[in-house]
Amino acid sequence: FVLVWEEPRCSNEDNSAVDPAHMKWREEFLRRLEGVGLLQERLQREVLQMKKKVCFVLLSAPWDVLCFYAEEISLRVPLQVVSTPVVNWSQQILSTLSLPNPLLQDVPNPPPDFYTCQFRTNKLQFLGSDNKETFFKTTQRHQVLYEILARTPYGSVRKGEVGIDRLVNEEVFTAAYPLHEGDFQLPAPPVAPQVLGLRQILFAYWARWSCWRRYQPLDHIREYFGEKIALYFAWIVYTGWLLPSALVGTLVFLFGLWVMAVDVPKEVCDSGNTFIMCPICNICSFWNYSSICHTYKQVGLLFDNAGTVFLSVFMSLWAVTFLEYWKRTSSSLSHRWDCSDFQDIAERPRPEFTAMAPMTTRNPITGAEEPYFPDKQRFNRTLTGCMAILLMVSVVLMFLIAIILYRTILSIIIHRSNNSFFSAGRIASLSGSVLNLLLILLLSRVYTSLAHILTRWMHRTQSKYEDMFILKVFVFQFVNFYSSPVYIAFFKGFVGYPGNYNSLFGVRNEDCGAGGCLVELAQEMLVIMVGKQLINNVQEFISKVKSWWQRRKMSPQGKKEEKKLSPWEADYQLLVCEGLFSEYLEMLQFGFVTIFVAACPLAPLCALINNWLEIRLDAQKFVTEYRRPVVERAQNIGIWFPILQFITHTAVLSNAFLIAFTSSFVPRLYFRYTRDSSLNGYINFTLATSPHTFNQQHLNASCYRGFRNDKGEFLPEYFHLLAIRLSFIIIFEHVVFFVGRLIDMMVPDIPEEVEMKIKREHYMAKEALAENQ
Fold first, then answer.
1. Which of 235, 319, 320, 348 lies closest to 639 in space, CA to CA?
2. Which residues are within 8 A (CB) of 413 and not within 5 positions of it... i.e. 6 or more apart?
3. How far apart are the first and last CA of the chain?
4. pLDDT for position 402
5. For residue 181, what is the DSSP state?
6. How far is residue 35 from each of residues 31, 32, 148, 510, measured CA to CA in Å?
7. Which residues pair with 689 in a beta bridge?
8. DSSP label at 691?
9. Coil, helix or strand at residue 86
């Protein structure tokens, strides 16, 4: 492990630059680390460009310290090699069918799988315990050292002056990181793959763009970066599941193009002056329905057709099935990586929580005395957090109302400059979508910073802390990202009727465009989803520029000296790994792919392409650009799974409502079976006559879309359609949830072979740790 701080190169000339409090804390911290038993080696290097002196402290733990803390933090050590090979399900299917597997690659030096048990110093008869240099893995040594660094005080414990994280935040140290295992670049004369280091293997068989179609070497990733990061990349197996949904979505889109080319809406295009429509805005004039022929044909039929209904059903079942698959995969990986009972038993309190908790209590599971936060203080902080979330959600809704008013007013302004109101509406709608995206990204940054403050100090374990932080951010981000699409899908278009229009702050409510609300929903989704992905990719590029600038700034002058960089100096030039939160948050696209897929069949394809790029970019960042992160254990992806379940259930209901209320599927079906199977007269059926009091010039003209009589009262057909729509929603969601429940009952969450391994491991651990008879 390496600790780093910077000082002025000539301290005699600039004593004011060295903070005496920082020097005192640093020396006290290093003194206490030495007292714990850690070995230290101090080194210095001058950086001419920055006129600074960079000081390094190299830390290592001797065998007795490793053993003590390995038992303290419940590290698991090997008992016996598991002989059963791990086979991917797709690999198994292709092998059974005797087909070649284009996804397979032979990654050298696969880490062996072991039966394991918790380490005990008085029971050193473990597999490989005769070699003290290799018995503990590198990642386990990192865990031990970080545990010591995180719990060692450097000042007053009551004031929270504990741990390396606080020291880095206070800029007493500029960095604290474990070392990478050598360079990632492959040797110039090619060598046998078995000779490569683990970092080189990850670069050659995972981070390169040529590996885009290969299985990820998850066991190698876990061996180098730990379980938490490996589970994230295992979860991105969701990308593979996007392949069938992207295929179906693309076919539905092509079907829409075919319908658009073949189906000529003669009732709209050949109507002439038959349908005189009421003004769309207060300053607009009457218009001919036939004027929207091209828009209705080119856009309306493209997104609103029978294929959309099939895609909604397919994606709802796809989401439910994917989550069932992930439950099995997650349980298999957590056992294989020795984390099945991590959060229940092995996870210890966070060092910050230990330092700041005002009292202790007995752990009901382990019986040990642990720090505790009183319920009253916890309630007060929870209440404050809830109020902050409600406040920020209110801010989002205020901005949404502002954008609605912006679109309406801009449409009127553009229309006054002698433009068609429909073209004005499109310009206003598109600019409103872009403005909404910018506000989304701005508010996301503000609230993420606020959520860090609200979650601090209160949660006992790192898993609980992260879960609560993620939950706070997700609640806000869900409203932030989806409020505008939800408004367009389910609330836009409730304008009332001529003579009795609804208004917002004195401005008449927005109506859907000529092609219907699904078209505008598709536009909003594409702007948010694709725009966000583009901005994320720009941020990835900026990250690479920052990495290059960091190396240039820190590298010594002259090419000869550059070759003499030590491993800790080379790693110091890399960027700090900021965790996986932002990576997981990018997967909010799961909601766009499932919740509003009826409006945009190409959403799964966009997500698939983005994720293929994202995997390689993330792999390159972790292997080549980031300092090595401290290994963190994890049993699963945490609260992200319940969040995905919530999104899936929301998607089922959303797709049902989209088909029933937003699309024209139900009215067309009703007309086909009650009036005319050829849909002749359907357009006239969907239009209503304006009231007598509205305008005497076009008396009894079909004036607006709706099922009302000439007095503005609902017709019996409206209530018939309402009953059919509600029945469709109930049947749709019951069928999808029934299929999901059936899969859940038929397929166990934990595979049978994994259950056998768990029982075998428990038996072997009991035998290994039993007292002598």
1. 235
2. none
3. 42
4. 85
5. S
6. 6, 5, 11, 71
7. 702
8. P
9. coil
Angle, vertex CA 232, rays to CA 226 and CA 238, nearest 5 = 145
What's the 3-state SS for 326-390? Answer: HHHHHHHHHHHCCCCCHHHHHCCECHHHHHHCCEEEECCCCCCEEEECCHHHHHHHHHHHHHHHH
- Beta-strand ranges (E) seen in 170-288 are 175-177, 276-277, 287-288
Range 289-296 contact pairs with CB under 8 angstroms and sequence separation of 24 or more: 289/683, 289/687, 289/702, 292/268, 292/422, 292/514, 292/515, 293/265, 293/268, 293/269, 295/422, 295/513, 295/514, 295/515, 296/265, 296/268, 296/514, 296/515
Distance, CA of 230 to CA of 88 (rounded, Å): 16
Per-domain residue ranges for the chain?
1-75+119-179, 79-111+183-213, 227-343+354-553+579-756
d(CA 374, CA 362): 13
Question: Which amino acid appears at position 449 of this protein?
Answer: S
Q: For residues 286 and 640, is the Cβ–Cβ distance under 8 A?
A: no
Place of tokens 């008449």: 508
Residue 117: phi and psi, rounded to 5, are -150, 170
Which residue shows structure tokens 């994994």?
A: 754
Tokens of 189: 């004369």
Percentage of the residues of the chain whose pLDDT score is greater than 70: 84
Nearest residue to 582 (alpha-carbon basis) of 547, 552, 626: 626
Which of 402-409's residues contact partners 24+ apart within 8 Å by CB, and which partners?
Answer: 403/432, 403/435, 403/436, 403/439, 403/484, 404/487, 404/504, 404/510, 405/504, 405/505, 405/507, 406/432, 406/435, 407/432, 407/510, 408/281, 408/507, 408/508, 408/509, 408/510, 409/507
Separation between Cα atoms, residue 773 and residue 767, nearest integer Å: 11
* Whole-number Å distance between alpha carbons of 679 and 677: 5
- For the whole model, what pTM was predicted? 0.82
Q: Tens of pLDDT along 467-494?
A: 888 888 888 888 888 888 888 888 887 7
